[in-house]
Amino acid sequence: MSDEPRRTSVVLIPRAQEALDLTAGRMGLSKTDVMNRALQAYAFLEEQMATGATILVRRDGSTEEVRFL
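Given the sequence above, the corresponding structure tokens read:
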């Protein structure tokens, strides 16, 4: 795998485009940076689940399991 950036074209559904716009604005990042981070995070989470891990979110003392469909 090369470390050189490559251009990829994707078509986003409206809900994904909204999430991209909101996240980029909230974090002060470019849409490219948000997409790069999101894909790396998803790959990490998918790898963890593939090897038997459970993904949990804890807030205000309560814990919920995160499931990706």
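The first strand starts at residue 55 and ends at 59. Try to locate this feature in the token string yourself.
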